[in-house]
Design brief:
This protein has 448 residues and is an alpha+beta fold. 35% of the residues lie in helices and 18% in strands. The chain has 13 helices and 17 strands. The protein has helices spanning 5-21, 23-27, 40-43, 57-73, 85-91, 121-128, 148-157, 174-184, 209-216, 221-244, 251-264, 323-342, 349-362; strands at residues 78-81, 103-107, 113-117, 139-142, 164-168, 203-207, 269-275, 296-305, 308-309, 312-317, 377-379, 386-390, 403-406, 409-412, 416-419, 422-426, 431-433. The longest helix is centred in the middle third of the chain and has 24 residues, at 221-244. The chain is elongated and about 70 Å long.
Length: 448
């Protein structure tokens, strides 16, 4: 899976937190000695790890069958995936990306097959064994001086697919998809022009997004349970960090509190932290920042629970907020509520963005993207950002069990920014948040 900026920031915070919370492991102190150093609001948190139940091989098999239905509907003869989120989604296989191709190919009919570097066979079989093809997988090996693309082309031909459409999952590198195209069509020139002597129809490359995103954007009851848990863990971590904060802390200090609070609950997570004028930058700044009385702090991050992500933003103030801060918070809160109310099955994605943007514009923070500088939300699941997106121009209708962030914001350069973000899922009749909205700047997590 490709690392995002947020994951990088979270990983850095997590590493720092581990060093802070577990010095006994380094110094040979008695177990539990470091635990006493945790601030009380964090120390009081309990592990929720036992509540997270892994996705089963049977569930992954059902996903493959759903993919085949979408392949038929979109006139694809097969789909190719490499290491990344979709491969984990369908198989549970975690494979890093390199110049050596490891791929899974799922035909619309017939058995899936894998193409793997020969020296990686044992590692591949170990992981495949835990997925839907674990009992008797077909693995086509290639040596270092051989072509993996020819293995894919032959595997397709053996299934009667020498012409038609092969869908490439959206993260498949061009060099891989083009290599398969060339191997499957030896009489097609590199520029795609057919040789005049060619008589057989060519195998075409196409997008597999309608299949992979089509599966992943609709969550099962189990997936929704994991996402709800992830959101609850992150919100509890934010509250514990907020109640442990002190004036004079740096944004790094506060980020460590967030990571510690996630770790205390049994999961790795974290947040990027922006203070004061830097909160007006939606994804912040790396410049040193210090928490001060009466200054806004914006936290944005989440955690992963059995591969499913949370993504929550909270805007808080240490001490007493100004009237302007409270006014802006109230506008953003109403915009978030408007987006939630607009989100219903059959409603276009862009209408949700429009509902939130109207509230902000009508309150004087328009027009358009002047102060509310980004879309209102993105799909979320195994990736923090995934299909579909709540943005102007997206006419895709919402459907039950889609999941999104709901995150309007107002960003006043040179002063401060306010963003409220919770994750929501579409129900049969509307939409529900996984976590309660932040009630106010004065009591951002309710009365403790």
């Amino acid at each position: 899976m490709n690392p995002s900026r947020r994951h990088f920031l979270q990983s850095a915070g997590i590493a720092a937190a581990i060093a802070t919370t577990q010095p006994s492991a380094l110094l040979g102190q008695p177990e539990g000695a470091a635990e006493k150093k945790l601030p009380e609001p964090i120390a009081k948190l309990k592990s929720r790890k036992a509540e997270a139940h892994p996705i089963t091989a049977a569930e992954r098999g059902q996903r493959v069958e759903r993919a085949r239905q979408l392949m038929a509907a979109n006139k694809l003869d097969a789909v190719m995936m490499i290491g990344g989120t979709s491969l984990v989604y369908f198989t549970g296989i975690r494979w890093w990306l390199s110049e050596r191709l490891f791929a899974m190919v799922v035909p619309v009919k017939g058995k899936p097959f894998y193409v793997c570097p020969a020296f990686e066979e044992d590692r591949a079989r170990e992981q495949i064994a835990n997925g839907p093809d674990g009992n008797d997988p077909e693995i086509r090996l290639w040596q270092e001086d051989e072509s993996p693309y020819e293995r894919i082309a032959q595997g397709l031909k053996d299934r009667g697919i020498s012409a038609g459409k092969l869908g490439a999952e959206e993260t498949v590198r061009y060099v891989f998809s083009d290599g398969v195209r060339a191997a499957a069509n030896p009489l097609v020139k590199a520029d795609g022009v057919k040789n005049v002597s060619m008589s057989a129809p060519a195998l075409e490359m196409a997008s597999a997004t309608p299949v992979t995103a089509g599966c992943r954007m609709i969550k099962s009851a189990h997936e929704l349970e994991l996402m709800k848990l992830a959101n609850e863990v992150t919100l509890a971590a934010y509250e514990a960090a907020y109640r442990s904060s002190k004036e004079g802390m740096t944004q790094r200090d506060f980020a460590q509190l967030v990571s510690q609070a996630h770790e205390r609950q049994g999961f790795q997570g974290g947040a990027s932290i922006q203070v004061g004028e830097f909160s007006a930058l939606p994804h912040g700044s790396v410049k040193p920042q210090v928490l001060r009385e009466g200054t806004i702090l914006l936290m944005d991050g989440g955690c992963r629970v059995e591969d499913y992500e949370s993504d929550i933003s909270r805007t808080v103030v240490l001490g007493k907020p100004t009237d302007k801060m409270k006014k802006v918070f109230d506008i953003v809160h109403r915009a978030q509520s408007a987006a939630l109310a607009a989100a219903k099955p059959g409603v276009q994605c862009q209408a949700v963005d429009a509902a939130a943007r109207k509230v902000i514009t009508d309150a004087g923070y328009g027009p358009d993207y002047k102060y509310f500088t980004h879309r209102v939300g993105h799909g979320i699941g195994m990736d923090g950002h995934e299909w579909p997106y709540l943005v102007r121009g997206n006419t895709l209708p919402l459907a039950p069990n889609m999941c999104f962030s709901d995150e309007p914001g107002i960003y006043i350069r040179g002063e401060f920014g306010v963003r409220l973000e919770d994750d929501m899922h579409i129900t049969e009749t509307g939409a529900e948040l996984f976590t309660p909205q932040s009630p106010s700047l004065d009591e951002p997590f309710g009365k403790g």
